[in-house]
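Reagents: none. Just compute today. ABC transport system permease protein.
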Amino acid sequence: MLQLAYAVPAVLAVVLGFVGLLQVAESGAVGSTGTVTATAGAATGSNERVAAALERVARTEHVTIVRFVADRASPVDRRTALTTGAPGTRGATWLRTGYPDFSRGMSTRVEPMAALVEFDPTGTYELDGSDLARSATVDALRSVGYEASSEAIPLARRLGMSDRLDGTLGLVGLVVTGAVVLCLVGTVGAPRRYAVQQAFGRSSGAVLLGECSVVRALLPLIGVAVPTGAAALWWYNRLADVGPFVLAVAAIAAVLLLPVIAAHGVGVLAALRVPMAEGVRGARPTAPLVALAQVARFPAVLLLVAAVFDLVGATAVARSGSMDRDLRAAGASVQLWVTPDPRPVDTQEYWDRIGDFAASALVDGGAILAAPVEVPVGAARSTVPVLFVDDGYLRLRDVRATDGSRVSPGSTRPAVWLPDGTDLDGTGLVRALRDWDLRNAAEPGVHLSAVRLADGPLYTFPGDATTPTWLDDAALVVVPDPARVFTPDQLGSWLSSGDVVFRTRADAERSITRAGIGREFSAVVDVGQAAAEEARRARLAVGVGTAAVVSGLAVAVSLSVLATAAHRRRSGRRRFVLATAGVSGLRADLGLFAVEFILVACGVVAVVETWVGRRPDGTGLHSVLDPVARAADPAALLAAAVVVTLAAVGVVVVGSTARTVVRERGAGAR
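Predicted 3D structure written out:
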């Protein structure tokens, strides 16, 4: 037990160090000490001026400034690093020898900062210098018309030790608790060997020093594990960033093992206080210690349920669209990023101006409307996903009816098309649209199409991960003249969320120049590039979620074994007596089976509560358009299956340990 108490935290330190550093490496550069975020200001300078300003700071402060951009053609496994090249810095080395990717699944192409002319200059820049270097970078960006803010990256986050995995701190707490219980069960619960050492006249200090043999027994395992791990890391990434990886593992291991060492020492001292005669007979673990081992299992199950929901949600976001299909559908379209809060919060003038701009762009044909909306119909919690589009969308996208004909513009009033095979109440939907969303239509009537849409999802030009890329169960509402039907406030909101999309960058720039409101937008971003960034983040979230579920499951199973082992050490001889008396296994271990039942009940309650909190509720808090909310049902089923499986493992452990106790005739237990 004592060797296991040291081995499990050490293994977890390696896993957390690897996963944490993988997150840091895929989201930025390992070793960066700070970030500077740039947004468009009142009069922004050219990209060439931005690149030149950053290069000056890099040379003056002797730092590396780098900006990572996902590759639009292959965002999952390729990206571009735009870096300064001051002599003697990491950036100069990267430009000369390439970037050492820690993740085997990520390939980084290095370009000088001068290549910024091909990208949006707004965004986050990383640097590995001091606070003075960050301040100089902020000043440089402001000197060319950009607003900038900086943030220091804490050492823990640089090593991947921050709580970026949902439930990581809880997982670490459970592992430490389990290891501490193992130490106490292996010392206070087994005082015989300490009583024997006392009988031979060894002092308390000598006994404590003798406990180092537990760690020495692990040295052969460490001698095998270190070269094996080094070889695996060489195969994985040619030992890229091996220094930060070793430092991260050492730091995490120290955090995990310090409580274990303290519990080991306290347990030994407590065992030495047990009377020698009682210790030689073999004392048993105390009831509170056994209860602690069982109680520690319950938060482990709660963390595991949350991890399963997070993993399924991340997978749903990653699978909400095919990357190749998304890029083809996006084409050359762009979205505008609205400058955050450039006006007093108590006025509406800003959003009216943005809305008028969006309406003008829609009328001119430079922009198109593709706005997914959740429309409440019928009961309070009954909602329907709806995609509002204009004629420009139908000219750009090939949408077909069930008879094979293409849905084309032509009607002068809004028309509603229902998906084929749906049980939606078309009359109720039309009534809801007329009463609210289309209440400003020039004609009060709304046409409900007699011919339904053919099978096939509708593309939404997604602006973020809260809306799926494709909708396969949404009604299509064609609004020929959105500038007259919707208010400027609504159109401005849709512009800011990426639902008013420009056909090309040239169309967007032309509309902005004509309106004279360039200062209101921080960037013009390709829809495909935004989708590429989302795909990369979704991929990372799936990997992190998988690690969280596997780690949580391993901890939950380990705690199950530990709790049962502690119970057997305390009550093993009683279990043997009951078996020899002919008592059935169910009756003999009724307490342990009751714990498994309560564990399942608590897990099911946690599953139901999480499901209720995440599923679409018709209030807008959890939208039916959100892939994470739409995945609540399969996530609940998977989480329930994991809880039941964990309980089944506990039952198997109870049965196997019972047979072991009977076979060994309760030796060493009371």
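The two ends are 19 Å apart (CA to CA).
Action item: order primers for follow-up constructs.
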